[in-house]
Amino acid sequence: MSKLSGIAASAGIAVARAFILEHPDYTITKTSVNDVEAEVEKLNKALEQSRAELQNIKARTLAELGEKKAEIFESHLLILDDPELITPVIDKIRSEAVNADFALNETASQFVAMFENMKSAYLQERAADMRDVTKRVLNHLLGITYISPAEISEEVIVVAQDLTPSDTAQLNRTYVKGFTTNIGGRTSHSAIMARSLEIPAVVGTKNVLSLVKAGDLLIVDGLSGDVLINPSEEEVAEYTRKQEAHNLQIAEWKKLRDEPTVSKDGKHVELAANIGTPNDVTGVLDNGGEGVGLYRTEFLYMGRDKLPSEEVQYNAYRTVLESMKGKPVVVRTLDIGGDKELPYLEMPKEMNPFLGYRAIRLCLDRQDIFRTQLRALLRASAHGELRIMFPMIATLTEFRAARELLLEEKAKLREEGKEVSDNIQLGIMVEIPSTAVLADQFAKEVDFFSIGTNDLIQYTMAADRMNEQVSYLYQPYNPAILRLVKIVIDAAHAEGKWTGMCGEMAGDSTAIPLLLGLGLDEFSMSATSILPARSQIAKLSAAEMKEMAAKALQMSTAEEVAALVHSSTK
After folding, report:
1. 451 neighbors 518 (Cβ within 8 angstroms)
2. Do residues 528 and 414 both lie within one domain?
3. Is residue 533 within 8 Å of residue 512, measured between CB atoms?
4. Which CATH number do you get for residue 175?
5. Where are the beta strands (DSSP E) in 84-206?
């Protein structure tokens, strides 16, 4: 047995076999072949193997997830058997005496381009199916062993260098019991998604990928940040007991699910959840969420080959609003850039992508994308309590420009006879220090603030939150951060507005007493953090926390502040 230490990113303990997730290299070189018939036979064998795989996946999906989910694999099988694709590939091999993988990739790429240029949405979506099928056949032609996260069909712990947002969006928590990565921190997107999926995770281990082989037995302890490789039976039993104790604590917290969030001295605050997909709403309601404080809409745009249509977006937003049954839903408009890329947008390569062409900057530039999203949101507003916020706002001019586009689309929809709510609150994320400093001016025009501490901290401290070398500077309790948070809250309250927080700091047990004392109105966090936070707030006096926060603001270091909180809340 060997043991690694990393960062505890998502609470819980998982015991399962390792699944190594590495993205294959599909670089294809054109080569001349002497025996073209042998190359044709190689293609036919790869097609046969792919067909057998798809039939198995289809059967399993049908049994476990139903007919609708299985339909996609039926369409993939039809592509494999389509002579309009296969015949030109064989002809190319024979006429040009080239390798089968080159002939397949060239021919399929032409079909993909053709489908993408068609006006029919149905035919455009066939481009994605064609890509998936092509990669499956190429796996066999190139000798690549690869199973996508979506195809995992047994209980595993995923081991990777890192997980992209699109990887995590594909994870099926029925089978993925946890994951561990070489890199990342508590605020990396893989960690945030792990908490949304409610699966244990340990990130930032540095070398777990090189030490673990596929099939190794692993224990991932998302409470302590430890990963055990091939543990003994005694260790498995010990960690199983630890998980059972954690489950008992969760059961105690569950008793608070339908209770309001009230401090010991009667101050009410709102506990909301951060979500990435409509499927996450179940977790919000199961954990007693009083709303959705952050709906990350970028996951609608990821794992696709083209932008989602207005109708696709409308259906997703409507589903969330209806599922929340009148509870508020704060939707963040598209926040792409930084570490979140869309391959089909061909984003420019930047020296500092976190400081570059992203979020509202991209949306104001690409109004075609932004207006489509705004229309979908406005249409969905008729189905619940919608609040919209713009990310990465640096100036009042940006906010006004975004608001103007929203008002234009609202007027157009009304002209078209579409129903749009008159009660949509419009706010901004406070992620940039300049915005926090100027909060008194923003507060005159916005309906609310939501403080995005993940970025606010990295911009204030000039420290990339994804860079382990400077991770010590990710300091949510630093008095500089606390002062910025207070400026924003006080500015909102002076105008009769409310302030929420949707960064990871909102669910941090050391930060919660400080934020309660600073007067934060809404705490938005991963769904699994809601009940522990509710339990903690019920034991705190808001008046006492206000006095404590005032002391913290006058301190010099994050360490001093953390010590103050721990001594004041024993």
Report:
1. no
2. yes
3. yes
4. 3.50.30.10
5. 156-160, 176-181, 201-203
Q: Are 446 and 503 within one domain?
A: yes
Whether the Cβ atoms of residue 473 and residue 463 lie closer than 8 Å to each other: yes
pLDDT digits 0-9 by tens, 371-423: 999 999 999 999 999 999 999 999 999 999 999 999 999 999 999 999 999 99
**Separation CA 481–CA 393 (nearest Å):** 18
Cα–Cα distance between 265 and 541 in angstroms, integer?
A: 5
**Which of 142, 159, 187 is a domain's end point?**
142
Residue 553 tokens read as: 């603001």
Of 140, 363, 383, 502, the active-site residue reads 502
Instruction: Report the distance separating Cα 452 and Cα 506, nearest Å.
Output: 9
Distance CA 317, CA 335 (A): 16
Q: Is a pLDDT exceeding 90 seen at residue 434?
A: yes
* Annotated catalytic residue 268: no
Same domain assignment for residues 312 and 461: yes
pTM, entire model: 0.71
**Residue 523, domain extent:** 255-568
For residue 195 the two structure tokens come to 């908490």
Average pLDDT estimate for 491-502: 98
Q: Identify the active-site residue in 76, 189, 363, 383.
A: 189
Q: Give the pLDDT confidence score for residue 69 in this predicted structure.
A: 61
Summarize the confidence of residues 161-172 as an average pLDDT. Answer: 71
For residue 502, indicate whether it is catalytic: yes
d(C-alpha 63, C-alpha 430), whole Å = 46
- 142, 167, 193 — which closes off a domain? 142
Same domain, 217 and 302: no
pLDDT at 340 over 90: no
CB neighbour burial string for 108-137, b if at least 16 within 10 angstroms, e if fewer:
beebbeebbeeeeeeebbbbbbbbbbbbbb
